[in-house]
Fold:
Amino acid sequence: MATDHARGGRADRAGGGTELRVLRPEDWDRWYDNLLRAFGGAVESDEERGLWRALTEYDRFLAAWDGGEVVGTAGAFSFRMTVPGGALVEAAGVTMVSVAATHRRRGVLTALMRRQLDDVRAWGEPLAVLTASEPPIYGRFGYGAGSFQLGAEIDTARVSLAVPAGTASVRLRYAAPAEVLEACEAVYARLVPGRPGMLARHRPGWERLGLLDPEDAREGASPLQCVVAERGGETVGFARFRVKLGWGPSGHDGAVVLEELYGLDPAAQAALWRFLFDIDLTSALVVRGRPVDEGWQHQVSDIRRCLLRVRDQYYVRLVDVGAALEARTYQAPVDVVLEVSDPFCPWNEGRWRLTGDAKGASCARTSDAAELALSVRELGAAYLGGVSLASLAAAGRVREVRRGALAEASPAFGSAVAPWLPHGF
Structure:
């Protein structure tokens, strides 16, 4: 181990003589270029590159160096994330993880993950979360798939929408996305406490993520468009989308590509969905990355013609088991002793007694006999309430030690609404 005097922190050794150091502003471009190369050499617009640079929290980002060359990257944004019960909990948003193809299988990734989780623990953040380009990578570091996302391709020429009462009172208007940003952010902020996994945008810059509109990323669709939903002069929702026109032998076959949609109540949401269904010269609505329990699925006339797809989204890691389990509430009373295995973060290993209900919880080490046995990966999967302990047990990932403990604990860990990550990072 060596000391990184320039940053006042430590510089850890990884495999093959590689050294880990905290990222410095003057090294950012080389660091980011290495990241893009690791992800296939993608080219980003100046706007997007500039935004990610502005969002970088340098003391939370790491570079792996081999001499004067950056060969690995990893970062951890500081987030506040909603957990079951509505509390906002500090969470490290793990991001921009890469290892150069020339330096694979040398322990660089393991060293980055080791240093990062040590740092997150030192910062006092009980959770780490990420989205995975390659899901098999992160299980060995204790991350479990804790939320899922819904995609769809809706045949709007054949599928109609039955909207709830009150929808007619919602007025829609087009607006330039940047001009209504403040009102849209206010809608987003009001929704954050209501769904586990949502991220509070407490640092400047994140609101700009939804306005990114590089031409080379449109795939032939229009520039970003925005419609605002209003009731009584108040903004109650908005949608950002693109339109991709096309023509076939029988006429138009254009598509609407939804980027974002938020509504404060069912009527506001329905008004926006109905608008997207009815845009002229289109016969399809392409939806990506939506909550799996979203209400429009129960309003459509033919769900089969919506071509639903579900895939993994959030990966959750409990960095401090006791603090994380105390931070959320539980749908049903629970009093259970958990035997937790966590070889990568051994400070979590051992037995924990979790006692809680809808009002709060406590979780402390105990010498009492274990009642459920599981790894920290399964705790991460179940933490936001989107994956049940019972389903993990059915897969052999949770072991019931005391008969009846699973039936008691599994409902308690649930959530009335599905967890969801509203945007990537």
Summary: The first helix runs from residue 28 to 38.
